[in-house]
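pinned: reference chain
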Amino acid sequence: MSLKALLILCLFSVGLASEAQVTRLKTSATDQLRPLDTTQHKMQIEIWSDIMCPFCYIGKRKFEAALAQFEHKDDVHITWKSYQLSPDMVTDPKKNINQFLAEHKGISVEEAKRMNEYVTGMAAQVGLTYNFDKTIVANSFNAHRFAHFAKQFGKQDEAEEALFAAYFNEGKNLDDYAVLIELGKEIGLDPAALKTALESGAYADDVRTDILEAEQLGLRGVPFFVFDRKYGVSGAQDSKVFLETMEKCVRE
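pinned: its structure tokens
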């Protein structure tokens, strides 16, 4: 298989490319999801994402660019949802991401490195710096629990940003409680309370429920953005796709 074919396979499997950029969601699927908090009378945007997904961080930046242009941006409530691209991944600080990708996709390490260089270029276009040579192979489940803990204190978006930066820029092990506690301190979370939550296994059910909801929606990759339970946008689409979808929700 050529590198180009491998890139296409990779991009589709993790949700950058999509034949249908915006889809109308079926109520039979959305009715199975947990009820939304409608007391705030805001547009509800839910984002299914995985910390180890490079396109999710790119998608976050593109969505943020759209939100900055949105006339009603102050009337938007964002909820991050957990998803795991590799739920069976075994954390191994000694293995770099190129080795993991090679094993996972059945390609050579050199091909994996070239694929990651290609993605690094995509990230640079939205102002992100990826250091794949430093990235640690780590199961993302505990990082998702950390994000759910942060959600209880209104800091979920800050948590997601901290996790992405720590993983792709700084090469930190996001399956290490000490790392997560330090990240929590940096965004203003109580380190003692966070330590207790992590060690007790708290928020594991929340992560599993998010993943179950993704299955109910028929997700095959991330990022996946849901707007007011009406429209779904798959992949790190151009900012104008996100903006047009928000404007469509307002008109309706």
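why pinned: The chain has one domain: 20-86+139-251. Residues 1-6 have pLDDT under 50 and may be disordered.
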